[in-house]
Design goal:
The protein is mainly α. It has 7 helices and no strands. 64% of the residues lie in helices and 0% in strands.
Length: 174
C-alpha cells in the first residue's frame, strides 16, 4: 500500500472517529433534553424515531442529488426502491420537517411524516414510532432535537458502522 493510501485511510479513520464522537455528543444532548420529561425507556423511542427519519432522509437526499445531476427525474420512486433506498415523500423529508421544527404542531407533523413514510414503504407498516404529539415532550424540546440532529450527516458513511440505528440503540442501552 502506498504512503498516500495509508494517509487517506488514517484521515478517513479520523473522520469516522470525529463523526462518531459528534453523533454520541448529539445523542447525549438529546437524552439530556428528554430526561426531565420522560423515563429513559421511553425517550429512546423518540430519539430512535428521529434518527431513523434523519437517516432515511439523508440517504434519500443523497440519491436525489445524484439522480438530479444525471438529468433524470428525482421524484421517480422506482429510482430509490431499485437500490433499496426508502422513498421519502414530500412533506416527510427531513428538510421539510426542519422548516417546521419550531411549530407548536411539530408532534403532529412528525406523526404525519411517519405515517406518510409507512404508506410509501409498505414494509415499514406499523413499525415507526408515531406518538410524538401524545408524548410528554413539549413541542419546543422536539424542535430543539430536530435542530440538533440537523447538524449531523447520517448517510455518507462517516460513522464507524453502517448500522447507525443499531449504534444509537446500543448507545441508549449503555
Amino acid at each position: 500500500m502506498t504512503k498516500e493510501k495509508v494517509q487517506d485511510k488514517q484521515k478517513a479513520g479520523q473522520t469516522k472517529a470525529e463523526a462518531n464522537a459528534k453523533l454520541e455528543k448529539v445523542l447525549w444532548e438529546a437524552a439530556d433534553a428528554l430526561r426531565k420529561n420522560l423515563d429513559a425507556a421511553e425517550y429512546k423511542h423518540i430519539v430512535l424515531g428521529l434518527v431513523f427519519l434523519k437517516y432515511i432522509s439523508d440517504t434519500f437526499e443523497e440519491k436525489y442529488r445524484q439522480i438530479k445531476a444525471e438529468g433524470d427525474n428525482p421524484e421517480d420512486k422506482d429510482e430509490y426502491t431499485a437500490e433499496n433506498i426508502f422513498w421519502v415523500p414530500i412533506g416527510a423529508r427531513w428538510s421539510d420537517i426542519q422548516k417546521q421544527a419550531r411549530s407548536i404542531e411539530i408532534g403532529g407533523i412528525l406523526n404525519d411524516a411517519m405515517d406518510a413514510i409507512e404508506k410509501s414503504n409498505p414494509e415499514l407498516k406499523n413499525i415507526l414510532h408515531k406518538d410524538y404529539s401524545k408524548s410528554d415532550v413539549p413541542s419546543d424540546t422536539l424542535g430543539k432535537l430536530i435542530d440538533k440532529f440537523s447538524d449531523i450527516e447520517l448517510a455518507n458513511g462517516d460513522t464507524e458502522t453502517t448500522d447507525t440505528l443499531g449504534k444509537v440503540y446500543e448507545y441508549f442501552l449503555g
